[in-house]
Design goal:
Elements (H helix, E strand, L loop, with lengths): L9 H4 L17 H14 L13 E7 L14 H9 L5 E3 L8 E3 L7 E3 L4 E5 L14 H10 L12 H5 L4 E3 L5 E3 L10 H7 E4 L2 E5 L7 H4 L23 H6 L8 E8 L3 E6 L17 E8 L1 H10 L7 E3 L7 H4 L2 H4 L2 E2 L2 E10 L9 H9 L3 H7 L6 E3 L25 H10 L6 E8 L2 H16 L2 E8 L1 H8 L4 H4 L2 E6 L10 H5 L20 H12 L3 H17 L3 E8 L2 E2 L4 E2 L16 E2 L1
Parallel strand pairs: 1-12, 1-13, 17-18, 17-19
Antiparallel strand pairs: 2-3, 4-5, 5-9, 6-7, 8-9, 10-11, 11-12, 14-21, 15-19, 15-20, 16-20, 22-23
Helix pairs in contact: 2-9, 12-14, 13-15, 19-20
């Protein structure tokens, strides 16, 4: 097993903000906004029946804050990346639409890849006729160059790092004792030959040689990190006080149905128009119905929601990924309800139990704790059904819907009385003192106070510690945390919709636990039977059998008390009444610009 660290998940990287997407602050709505929304909906009600999608019109996208980069190798997984991938960035594979949106399909590639060498080698053949926005063909060399850029740590300061972790390139040990790739990007001529042995171009076929088997590699190459990039970087000269690096980072060079008209204006936005060289016959996913997509940035969350509610001028044809307050659902009239959606974020809130603490090392205590956990009150405290759904698995709905169904005999409100009997029958002296740590926020504090009530009814005496969000993960990943706490709050959003992006990262001691601390396995879960199932899943070629093995591993972790899942989180999105065929993508988590149209 490689000593290279596994890539970090989106939720883990953003964990300093640990309230997590659905539990963070959301834009509130005033009574005046609601009245204006009802009046605005009335003005567009005529002819509002669902009609077949039609090409034409302008779609407006309202963004709170600014876009940090449009560079695909630097973008991390999230709304901006999904926007880019449905408009101007294409990758070897991508995700379908509508009823098939969880299905992986070939995008730049003719299919989802061909494996050999036991899953250590993957080949993809490029579709014919795919071009850049100037009409020049997208080549295997462009894809290889894009991957090469991710090895340059002077410029690859964001984004995912699967290529440098997975590709079979030589490594070296740093003075700090860490292992990292010897290859350092396109300017590294010394190690270029070794890199080209790992990423091989032959005509329109690109072949990746990995250091270990990775059965979910077709999902991984759907990430922006694996997008093509021409060796001749198209960065423009700086304008005014704008640095050359910033300008280049915001350049858009399209392989999709839209191209940027003019320059991107930081703090203001830009307009995307049809890419004349995009051939729809080469693209199985993107319908590109609107003629123009106008992106406005630099707004506040409150302004975005107010504009979407009032729908003045072009805002009836507007969408956004800003989170509105879940309470809007209860205040909205019928017309406004039709413009609200509650997609899952992909993130799951859970509790990691410290397998090395004196109290949680007892299996019966872990069982009683899980039995007394009230998921219903947790969901209510964090915003109700518009903010999340009770779940029994850390594998979110984009991976599997099974976790949303209570196991046989389980109750969403928990069973504190049964939990107390379990402890008493086992001869455990009550109360059982437990130390729970979580990040600090109004919603999280409220949610954990609600959970505490159920635990105390079961016979637990709860000592809760809240930590500032920016310090939370530093706190719980210290080696001393194993002595300080019994229960840790966690939240996880995988980079890819697969159990392989969840279970090893959180519960495989082999890649987490060392003298520096527990890594992401903060509960020090270390189980040989579970590890064997994970290895078996990674080695299984058949996708259905692989998913079944991952499900076995997940069930065994829960059975042995490794974690208690709480909620699959949701957000509330608002869109204009003039937007048609609106769909929040199950994997992307925001409006699917591949199929949306405007009236």
């Amino acid at each position: 097993m490689s000593l290279l660290p596994r890539p970090r998940s989106l939720a883990r990287v953003g964990a300093a903000l640990t309230a997590v997407a659905a539990l963070g602050a959301t834009a509130a709505c005033s009574p005046e906004d609601l009245m204006a929304a009802r009046q605005a909906d009335a003005t567009v009600a005529a002819g509002a029946g669902v009609a077949p999608p039609q090409s034409g019109g302008t779609l407006n996208v309202l963004v709170a804050g600014n876009i940090a980069t449009w560079d695909p190798q630097v973008m991390y997984v999230g709304p901006e990346a999904f926007f880019a991938q449905r408009t101007f960035v294409r990758t070897l594979t991508t995700y379908g639409t509508g009823d098939r949106e969880r299905e992986l399909v070939g995008d730049l590639a003719t299919d989802t890849g061909r494996e050999s060498n036991g899953g250590r080698t993957w080949s993809f053949t490029l579709r014919e006729g795919v071009t850049w926005q100037d009409g020049s063909p997208v080549t295997c060399a462009d894809l290889r160059h894009g991957v090469a850029r991710t090895f340059d740590r002077s410029t690859h300061v964001g984004g995912t790092n699967y290529a440098s972790f997975l590709l079979d390139v030589p490594t070296k040990v740093t003075p700090e004792g860490l292992e990292k790739p010897a290859y350092s990007g396109p300017s590294d001529t010394t190690n270029e030959k070794a890199f080209r042995k790992a990423v091989v171009c032959k005509g329109r076929t690109i072949t990746f040689h990995l250091r270990t088997a990775e059965r979910d590699f077709p999902h991984i190459v759907a990430l922006p990190e694996f997008a093509p990039r021409r060796p001749e970087s198209p960065g423009t000269e700086p304008k005014g006080a704008q640095s050359k690096e910033l300008q280049a980072s915001l350049d858009v060079v399209s392989t999709g149905p839209y191209r940027l008209e003019g320059d991107w204006q930081p703090g203001k936005g830009g307009t995307f128009v049809r890419n004349e060289h995009w051939d729809p016959t080469t693209d199985p996913i993107r319908k590109a119905y609107p003629d123009r997509i106008v992106v406005t940035t630099g707004l506040s969350e409150e302004t975005v929601i107010e504009r979407l509610l009032n729908q003045r001028e072009g805002d009836a044809q507007a969408v956004s990924w800003v989170k509105a307050s879940p309470t809007l659902r209860n205040q909205a009239g019928t017309a406004l309800q039709a413009r609200l959606t509650f997609p899952y974020t992909g993130s799951v809130d859970y509790l990691a139990l410290n397998m090395r603490s004196a109290v949680m090392s007892k299996a019966v205590v872990r069982e009683a704790f899980a039995l007394s956990t009230n998921r219903a009150t947790y969901v209510t405290a964090t915003g109700g059904e518009g903010a999340g759904s009770p779940t029994w698995s850390v594998l979110g709905p984009a991976i599997s819907q099974a976790g949303l169904k209570p196991p046989k005999g389980a109750r969403v409100e928990g069973d504190p009385e049964a939990a107390r009997r379990l402890l008493v029958d086992a001869g455990i002296t009550l109360p059982v003192r437990i130390r729970v740590v979580h990040a600090r926020s109004l919603l999280i504090d409220k949610a954990y106070a609600a959970l505490e009530a159920g635990w105390e009814r079961a016979g637990f005496e709860v000592e809760r510690t809240s930590v500032e969000p920016e310090d939370y993960y530093k706190t719980i990943e210290k080696p001393s945390s194993v002595k300080d706490y019994d229960v840790f709050r966690g939240s996880w959003m995988p980079d890819i919709p697969s159990a392989s992006g969840v279970l090893p990262a959180l519960f495989d001691a082999r890649i987490n636990i060392d003298s520096s601390g527990p890594g992401q396995d903060v509960g020090y879960f270390d189980d040989k039977a579970v590890a064997a199932l994970m290895d078996r899943a990674q080695a299984t070629a058949d996708p259905r059998k692989r998913a079944a093995t991952w499900a076995q591993a997940d069930a065994l972790i829960r059975e042995r008390g490794g974690y208690v899942a709480l909620a699959a989180t949701k957000v509330l999105h608002v869109h204009g009444a003039g937007v048609r065929h609106y769909d929040d993508h199950a994997v992307g988590g925001i409006v699917d610009l591949a199929t949306v149209s405007v009236r």
